[in-house]
Design goal:
Keywords: Hydrolase. The protein has 307 residues and is α/β, with parallel strands linked by helices. It has 9 helices and 9 strands.
C-alpha cells in the first residue's frame, strides 16, 4: 500500500478520502457463501487481488512546464446514457463522477495542473457540450474516465433482494484513442495513450489483453493496454475523435470483477492512478512537436477522415 508521505507528487490524501466517501462500491463480500459464489481465491496474489501492491510513478516535469489545464470527462451521464452496472450494482456514471473528482483533487494538489471535471450530478450533459467546454476553457488534454464490462455475464446477489452482474475472466485497464483527423493531433493522442498505459502498468495496474475487443479496437504494437478505435464509421467514440486537444479514454477496470471494483474504491489505488496520470501528462503535454517528430519515423498513425 502507498504511504502518502512517500508520494513523489505530494498528492492530497485528505481530499482523496473525501472523494472516496462518494463512491458507493463496497469491498469484496466477507460472507463465505458470497465469496464462493464469486469464486474468490483464499490466497490471492497479483493485481487485482487485495495483496497486490500499487506504487506512485515519479513524474519528471520540464523546467518550463508551468501549470497545465486538464479536462476530466466523467464517462456517461449523458441524456439516456448511464453506462454499465457494476458487480455491486453501481451505475458507471456514478463511478466515473466519483473517480473524476478524486483525480481532479489529487492533480490540483500537485500545483502542476488545473483539472476541470466536465459534469456534475445535477443534470445530464451531452458529449458535444463537454468537447465545446474543453475547447473554450483551452484544455491541453481531454481524459475520459470509464469502467468496462467484458465477457459472459453471470449474476450474483450481494444482499437480499439485489441481483448484480459479475464476471471474473477479463480484469485490467485499457487506454483507447482515435487515429481519425489531422496527423499531428493523432500523433499526440497516440503518445498520450502510450504514456498512460506505460505509467499505469508502472503503478502496478494490469493492462487488459483485449480478447473481447476484436473487431472493435485494434491493439497497439508498441504498448500493452493501448487500443485504437475500429468501430464501423458512424459508431466511433465521439470523445476520441472530436476534441481539438489530445484525447484518450481510460477504461479503468472491469466493472463486473469484484476484485477490481473493490480495489478502485481504495485510496491507494486512486493515489497510484493519480500519480500515473500526472506522470503521463508530464511525459507528453506541452511536447507536441517533439512527440510528432518521434512518432514520424514510420510509427506515426495514418490519418483517417472524420465521420
Amino acid at each position: 500500500m502507498i504511504s502518502r508521505r512517500k508520494l513523489v507528487l505530494g498528492l492530497a490524501g485528505a481530499a482523496g478520502v473525501a472523494a472516496l466517501s462518494r463512491a458507493r462500491c463496497p469491498g469484496p463480500p466477507r460472507d463465505p457463501a458470497a465469496r464462493r459464489a464469486l469464486k474468490l481465491p483464499i490466497a490471492p496474489s497479483g493485481w487485482p487481488f487485495p495483496g497486490a501492491r500499487v506504487v506512485a510513478p515519479a513524474a519528471v516535469f520540464p523546467s518550463d512546464f508551468g501549470v497545465r489545464r486538464i479536462y476530466l470527462d466523467p464517462g456517461h451521464g449523458a441524456p439516456g446514457n448511464a453506462g454499465n452496472v457494476s458487480c455491486f450494482c453501481v451505475e458507471e456514471q456514478d463511478f466515473t463522477l466519483s473517480a473524476a473528482h478524486a483525480l481532479a483533487e489529487r492533480l490540483n494538489a500537485t500545483g502542476r495542473f488545473e483539472a476541470r471535471v466536465g459534469r456534475t450530478a445535477d443534470r445530464p450533459v451531452r458529449y458535444q457540450e463537454r468537447a465545446e467546454d474543453a475547447a473554450r476553457w483551452r484544455a491541453e488534454a481531454f481524459v475520459s474516465l470509464h469502467s468496462d464490462v467484458r465477457g459472459r455475464i453471470e449474476t450474483w446477489s450481494p444482499a437480499p433482494g439485489r441481483t448484480c452482474p459479475f464476471n471474473l475472466a477479463a480484469p485490467g485497464f485499457a487506454v483507447l484513442w482515435s487515429d481519425e483527423g489531422e496527423p499531428a493531433l493523432c500523433a499526440r493522442r497516440l503518445a498520450l495513450a502510450r504514456a498512460f498505459a506505460r505509467r499505469m502498468a508502472e503503478a502496478g495496474l494490469m493492462p487488459y489483453r483485449g480478447a473481447s475487443y476484436r473487431g472493435l479496437y485494434e491493439p497497439d504494437s508498441a504498448q500493452a493496454g493501448v487500443f485504437v478505435d475500429r468501430h464501423p464509421p458512424g459508431q466511433r467514440i465521439f470523445v476520441l475523435r472530436r476534441p481539438t486537444m489530445p484525447s484518450v479514454l481510460i477504461e479503468t477496470h472491469h466493472a463486473l470483477d469484484a476484485r477490481e471494483a473493490a480495489r478502485w474504491t481504495e485510496p491507494a489505488t486512486l493515489d497510484a492512478f493519480a500519480a500515473a496520470t500526472a506522470a503521463a501528462l508530464a511525459d507528453t503535454v506541452g511536447r507536441g512537436n517533439a512527440v510528432a517528430e518521434t512518432l514520424g519515423g514510420g510509427d506515426a498513425p495514418a490519418s483517417r477522415p472524420p465521420t
